[in-house]
Amino acid sequence: MILGITGPSGSGKTTLLTLLRDYGGAVLDCDEIYHELLQTDAALLARLAAAFPAAFEGGVLQRRRLGKLVFADPAALARLNEITHAAVKAEVERRLLGRQSAAIDAIALFESGLAPLCDTTVAVVAPEEARLARLMARDSIPESYARSRMAAQHEEGWFRARCDHVLENRGDYAQFREECLAFLKKLGIIAE
After folding, report:
1. pTM of the model
2. In terms of Cα–Cα distance, which of 31, 39, 20 is closest to 109?
3. How is 101-139 classified by DSSP, letter by letter?
4. Which of 125, 139, 167, 185 is the 20 to 30 A CA-CA neighbour of 42?
């Protein structure tokens, strides 16, 4: 089974992914893949440099600078997504070759064209203020930058409407971890 995992930043997708990894599951984290490609894919970097020259300094991509450019400008964000989604999707497809089961973690699961690769999809959602606090702590970013990232993403209802399942991260870590474990058992991804 190929499980697609999505939801807004800071919702708790990592908890679900960690459980999958702990039980030996293959996880394709599209954020990790994107960051790897930024280090290894010269063609991707060239496309980004051509589209966003102000985000580069001395030929090196400055990710926070790129973020400030795109999170404030919907057209720039759409251009960034057009460039990066194609590269990430190609790499995910390459990594899925020969696999019968895996989880694909992608905030843009549907927009990137990855959802059709999945047998089922799950949205992980959480209250906005909890997501904000997690983003600021996890990425060491100020509230204004975290809010601009969140504003550039779809609302919770968008994810709910498109996914086959929804996991609500409304409790503490231990409670949510147990909910994730029960969900994975229900799907038969991990044994009872």
Report:
1. 0.87
2. 31
3. -EEEE-TTTTTTT-GGG-SEEEEEE--HHHHHHHHHHHH
4. 139
